[in-house]
Amino acid sequence: MSVTRSLDELRQADAAAFGGKSSTLGELIAAGIPVPPGFAVSTTAFRSFVAEAGLEGMIAAELERMAPDDVDSVGAASHAISQAMRFAPVPDAVRDEVARRYAELGDDVPVAVRSSALGEDSQDATYAGQQETYLWVRGADHVCDAVRDCWVSLYSPPAMTYRARLGAGAGEPAMGVAVQLMVDAEVSGVMFTCNPVSGDPSMVAVNASWGLGLAVVGGEVTPDDYLVSKVTKEVVREHVHAKEVEYVPDAAGRGAVRVDVPEERRAVACLDSPALEALVDLAGRVERYFGSHQDVEWAIARGCELPASLTVVQSRPVTALPRRSDPPAATSAMALVMNAFGAGVPKER
Amino acid sequence: MAASSAVGSFPSPYEIETPPGCEGWEDLYPYYGRFDEERREADEQRFWFWNSMHFPVPMPAFDAICIDTAYQALGSWQNRVFAVPPAMGIDWRCINGYIYISGNPVLDPDKIAERAGWFQQRAGYYYANWNELYGKWRAKMEALIAELDALRVPELGEYEPDAVAFEDQETSYCAVLEAYRRALRLHDVMWQHHFEFLLLGYGAYMTFAELCKANLPDIPDQHIAQMVAGLDVLLFRPDAELRRLARLAIDSGVDSAFVEGRSPEEIETELAGSDAGRAWLAELEQVKEPWFHMATGDGLYHTYTSWLDDPRIPYASLIGHIGALKAGEDIERPSDHIAEERERLAVEYAALLDGEARKGFEELLALSRTVFPYVEEHKFYADYWFLTSWWNKIREFGDLLVAHGFLAERDDIFQLSRLEVYSALDELLLTWATGGQPRGPKYWPPIVARRQELLERLADWTPPPAVGAVPEAVLDPALIMLWGVTTQRVHAWARHQEGGSELTGTAASPGVVEGVARVVKTVGEIGDVREGEILVCSITSPAWAPIFSKITAAVTDIGGVMSHAAIVCREYALPAVVGTGRATSQIRTGQRIRVDGTAGTVAILE
Questions:
Q1: Of A44, A93, B424, B536, which sits most exposed with the smallest number of CB within 10 A?
Q2: What are B100-130's pLDDT values in tens digits?
Q3: From start to end of B448-511, where are the E strands?
Q4: Residue of chain B with shortest Cα separation from A204
């Protein structure tokens, strides 16, 4: 039985089997959005891992014993389960399939290994940031280790607390994994297909910083901040900040490291107008495809030209938009004009 | 409007000193136009702003008629005809020759509701019948201008004409006074027409702008303006005619006459020497009526003459256009592109809205486009065509006073108030009739000389953008719609009272440009503008069109996104920041400045 699938074969309907992130990436590819190629590991692989290692009883017992409101109790349960999982072997069948898919991506190529939880990236609940991502992973064995680390992250204290709070609504926990070719990002960031602060649907709000996206997503830098009109592609607002750190591949090309941004590059705007235009164009395509406002993580690769250098690494619906300042409940254009003149509530002549 | 100290302050109008040597400036203006002690308690608590949009330089005594009549007319429509619910009319006061204005609010909720009933009925009628009423308006204005042209100022001869003796024609003293009264009356009627549609026109547009901002909070003002602005606007026609004449000059081989530095007379003399040149001059004559009735400034001063009076401006433009054509440049307005962009913006913004909001957007856009031709065109008829002709009519009364020794120059008449002119004419007619010795020839010339000197000195004084109390909020629709004076703007003025190296205003045309500033305070200085400079002025008028092909950006003291400078800058793709309140007083010619027409800021770099 196959427990992996090429990302481009996945659709939203596969979310139950592969998790939200992988299925969304499949949808993006179907929409013609540039996404780094890769494959997904199914939740079945996770379940067979737990079953073959005989961990089900142990996990159930730990959860039974855990007091969800007690930080120490959650921490102890998390530690016990994580340790047990970390020492359990990845099933051979899974290992072989992952190794074959990995080899298809290239020879010893660096990849990003990201968790793809069930229920993640849904409109109702945002699991964002609670599951792990491993960057710049090389070699089949390391990829398998990273897959297992993603599985382990399902039992991190925050994830456990979060599920406990959702109660039965959280469903049975299971974890898919997405493995994608690594983008050697010169610049990366996040964009919303509307202004999340004002709610303006005609704007794209872009945050960008040097290096890999970790620094922006993790809030470790104050990113450059742009507001760009979808209609004219004009930059309506622009704030360039001093970006002090960035994540880059380590010297050996295995794993990402946090380094100081050289002084002279910190206050330099990391996007120019062609890059912003490409981003706004991309935002429009993603929004139109999903039919709702999206929060898109993107990266611009080093050493190649726009627009080919621009890729999307994930997208999810914008969950909380501000209510726009009371759009007047007018019955007609004339009633609005009368309001403007303060003649909204007349006394009969 | 209560005072609020949290947002800065303005000087009290009673604490502003008269500049040295300008004592007695009050004599130029009516008794009610001063900050007097009798009304001090009330006036100090009110918010007054310098109306630099209409009155950028010290007011000559005669020209002050435009203040009174304009606010009589505005107040009549706003307060007595339409009864705009929360706001009556505008009061004015003068400080050192500069005009400050303040709105009269309606505060009683019952009164507001009562006025709303009148407003709904009357304004509703105008909106429902707009095109028909506006068609009639144009006919009324053209008839008024024809009546002005037909008005004759009688001469005073040794003996009355035979018609008085034999045909019962009225005597000249009656005829002169009647002509003067009719001239004043035509001016009253012009302002009556001028304000008939103005508030309603701006109101529809503002409502559309507010709907856009409620649903699209970050939409740039200029996109709203672009969706509404007319394509075939009357105000662009004069320059379009000049471009056509420029092409004709090249096609008929007479372009070599148009040499930079030559006067209009020199050019016309050369043209008159050939058949092709004479044909071109005949075509020019055709264009003059009415397109050369453009004013050289924004109209409300006698010094703003028309292109007919001062052909240097259209000729400078012709020389520029011919030069550009010969250099292979495209001098046409990109009107196809403007039309496409106007529609594209409207369609794409509408598509971003849903249900109710989209319906409101589409209806208000349609209404705004219906009313906007008036908003854009009334200036040509009223401010330019009528007023430049009217000042010339008043000059004919000046000629009469010169002929009888009361004045040295015809333009000296503008140093007398309209009532003083009446008085001088009265004395002239009395002594002409009686053969007695007039006092006027000794009485008026020293007054004229002193007032000319005063105006020159007052021109060097820099008025603060506002005086009196800082309002917590500006609620008067007229101030917001006609002057762009919003709460935000006023508070920014109050904060910047101490000055600073950055000015903020309305982002009127996008882009960022750095360059050398050229501060232009009067239209006479526009010839000083050099290629590549940034224009810094109080406000521009369409007659300034020739310099927009030279400059790289524009900054104005007052105006909103629909002001002339904003519209023209968008057409020429030049960055513009308008409504800074104090650009002409803070920036000096020669300074390097950076204009950010996207953010609405101007930085003084040195």
A1: A93
A2: 999 999 999 999 999 999 999 999 999 999 9
A3: 466-468, 502-504, 506-509
A4: B218
